[in-house]
Specification:
Layout: H1 12-22, E1 31-34, H2 41-55, E2 60-66, H3 67-70, H4 76-88, H5 93-130, H6 132-174, E3 177-183, H7 190-202, E4 209-215, H8 217-228, H9 233-238, E5 243-246, H10 253-275, H11 287-296, H12 300-317, H13 325-340, H14 350-371, H15 376-391, H16 395-405, H17 414-425, H18 432-446
Parallel strand pairs: 1-4, 1-5, 2-3, 3-4
Helix pairs in contact: 1-2, 4-5, 5-6, 7-8, 10-11, 10-12, 11-13, 11-14, 12-13, 12-18, 13-14, 13-15, 13-18, 14-15, 14-18
């Protein structure tokens, strides 16, 4: 399935605009597309590549590289080079062999230097692990490789110039610009991430090759400070990044996240519910998630985890959890708390779990009264039910039995008594606090490590 078909936030519209800019003579490369972790950067990177391939294939060739996938290799320049060769050979082994023959000497030098640097890195790591005495021995080995690197420096510079010339000629033969999308840069080891930036500037800086970097600008700044200490990271990055743009959202990130959840629930959760012949979730029933998202703010990655937890609950327990709005709001609030912070509701008794849910529902009521006064009635009922359960010895069922027997006086009006009776006549027939506990225990079981 194409990424555009899975684009629940309509970000292909943004990808189209950026692709249009990339295929002009705008001097914006290297371009950084900035976004915080979990904001959907990798998905957007794939959307952008599809846009370039589908609408601009006569002007550009594009490559997608997951830097995090390759950062264990310690050879950023070779990763980029090998992917470029693969692209230019168009899947033809004989053509690939010709390209490799042209650049074999250059590649050999790059391998030697990268391997030496990699070994030096490994030696240093091992030295730190095994103590000062071993460090001294290993430093001697490291010095030999450092000297070897220095002795090759002049040759590297000559061969780097040759590599640029060869790549330029190959790209010119294609009569197309090569756009390389480097994703997950902010998740790489700091030294590898910096190696990627330096390789772009010193090895692949030719007019026919342009780079789009995908990552968190703040994380890249942190990487620079970790490696170089207290320097101005903005000035440092200016050497490598010509322009940056933030990954945009729709009309407010909270609204985007809720829409995203609603679409995934429709596509995944409701399909499971229909297979199990239970009540699906509609947008009215999940309004509490809009409140919780607005109050807490969550990333798209966390949103996906939340929906996964909903799917796990109904798949494992196979109950008609979402038959009533009251049940739905209690369960979704419990799942939200569990998803954003498992320790947030890790008490020793079911009453304290329920108290966490009551607290969050109370916040949602206040938020909804002030900002979107819709569906308040069901939310208030859920709040009242849980409150009564927590404050009544023996729970709600015992309270109702006592009311029937008139052995205990409760300050409950007839409307609330009817609400509680109706709750037990529903299919689940379970005390609300037990409903919270059952939900939480199921998720704890599934998420055990």
């Amino acid at each position: 399935m194409k990424h555009q078909e899975m684009d629940l936030l309509d970000r292909h519209v943004v990808a189209e605009k950026i692709a249009n800019a990339l295929t002009t003579k705008l001097d914006i490369f290297p371009l950084l597309i900035d976004g915080h972790w979990g904001s959907g950067k990798s998905f957007f990177a794939q959307l952008l590549k599809e846009e370039l391939e589908n609408k601009h294939s006569t002007k550009v060739l594009s490559i997608y590289i997951d830097c995090f996938e390759h950062d264990h290799l310690n050879t950023a320049r070779l990763t980029i080079l090998s992917k470029t060769i693969e692209l230019l050979s168009h899947g033809k082994p004989e053509y690939k062999k010709k390209i490799l023959n042209k650049i074999s000497n250059v590649a050999k030098t790059l391998v030697q230097v990268s391997a030496s640097a990699a070994l030096k890195t490994v030696l240093k790591i091992n030295a730190e692990e095994f103590g000062k005495h071993l460090e001294e021995d290993l430093e001697e080995e490291g010095d030999k490789y450092i000297k070897d690197i220095l002795s090759q420096q002049e040759r590297v510079e000559e061969e780097s110039a040759s590599l640029k010339k060869i790549l330029s000629e190959l790209a010119q033969a294609e009569a197309k610009k090569i756009i390389i999308i480097l994703d997950e840069l902010d998740r790489c080891r700091p030294d590898y991430a910096l190696s990627v930036l330096e390789s772009i500037k010193h090895i692949f800086d030719i007019p026919e090759m342009e780079f789009v970097l995908i990552g968190s600008l703040e994380q890249l700044k942190a990487i620079i400070k970790k490696n170089y200490g207290d320097i101005n990271s903005d000035i440092y990055l200016e050497k490598f990044i010509k322009h940056s743009t933030s990954l945009p959202t729709h009309s407010g990130e909270e609204h985007s996240t809720f829409r995203y959840i609603a679409k995934i629930i429709e596509r995944e959760t409701n399909e499971i519910a229909r297979d199990l012949e239970t009540t699906p979730l509609n947008e009215e029933k999940i309004q509490i998630l809009a409140d919780l998202i607005s109050l807490h703010g969550i990333s798209l990655r966390t949103a996906e985890r939340l929906v996964k937890n909903i799917n796990v609950l109904i798949s494992m327990n196979r109950k008609n959890y979402f038959k009533t709005n009251i049940n739905t709001e209690i369960i979704l609030c419990t799942l939200f708390i569990f998803t954003i912070n498992k320790n947030m509701a890790k008490p020793e008794t079911k009453d304290s779990i329920a108290s966490s849910v009551i607290n969050e529902i109370g916040k949602c009521i206040h938020h909804r009264e002030n900002k979107r006064p819709k569906h308040l009635d069901q939310l208030n009922k859920a709040y009242d039910l849980l409150n009564t359960c927590v404050s009544t010895p023996g729970g709600l069922k015992s309270a109702l039995a006592a009311i029937e027997d008139k052995t205990v006086k409760y300050s409950l009006d007839q409307e609330k008594i009817k609400l509680y009776r109706d709750f037990f006549e529903e299919e689940l027939a379970i005390d609300p606090t037990n409903l919270v506990l059952e939900t939480f225990n199921t998720m704890s079981l599934f998420n055990q490590k």
